Amino acid sequence: MYAIVKAGGRQEKVSVGDVVVVDRLKGAEGDSVELEPILLVDGDKVTSEAADLKKITVTAEIVRDEKGPKITILKFKNKTGYRRRLGHRQRLTRLKVTGIK
Question: Does residue 31 form part of some domain?
Fold first, then answer.
């Protein structure tokens, strides 16, 4: 059984025991969060109706907060002497899926 959930602005395919990395969520390590299911596949049966999906809960546990890879941003304008170097590291949360009911 697996579900496609909305997590952190993206859609993720998850099943029980999977570890996924999503955009930063509020909460401490060990806290439980619920993810919004978009589609559920249980063997041969596929559930995508909104009324049926409201009955289903996908729970996950926060494993830890982390940062993504460093991204370097360079800006340059010709003939003006304008150069700028910036960096960015996305804040992420690692989740472990504990149940699909």
Answer: yes
